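Pilot study result, target chain (144 residues):
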Amino acid sequence: MEAHYYTVDVEWKDNRKGEMSSPELSQNIEVATPPQFPKGIEGIWSPEHLFTAAVSSCLMTTFLAIAENSKLEFSDFQCKSKGKLEQVEGKFLMTEVILEPVVTIKNESEREKAERVLQKSEANCLISNSVKSKITMIPQIKVM
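Predicted structure:
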């Protein structure tokens, strides 16, 4: 498979705020320093949120592909996630991302398959495999 490239442009607007865009996408995203840092701004996506979101959304998209290939019948996928920022040896690092996916299935007989698909999805998520943060997954399977 050939390499794929994804273009993202960032432009500073004012204070600690900027805007991300991509010639490949129609929606721009405002981004800022998080409020935990000096002059940080509440209510705007931060790099830390986007990092956590990248891991979580990659889990979802990987799950969707593997579930389809595995013919897993599910009615819902949701995932809460939390990124942990720590200072280690004088540097700020995202040391852990905790994923709490919830998959809703229609039949109890699909539970083991759903668990396997989730585990395989986490193991094959390209973002999780690309970062040095610890990835912790706490999955939940619900029967509708």
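One observation from the pilot: The CA atoms of residues 81 and 99 lie 5 Å apart. A full batch analysis is planned for the follow-on phase.
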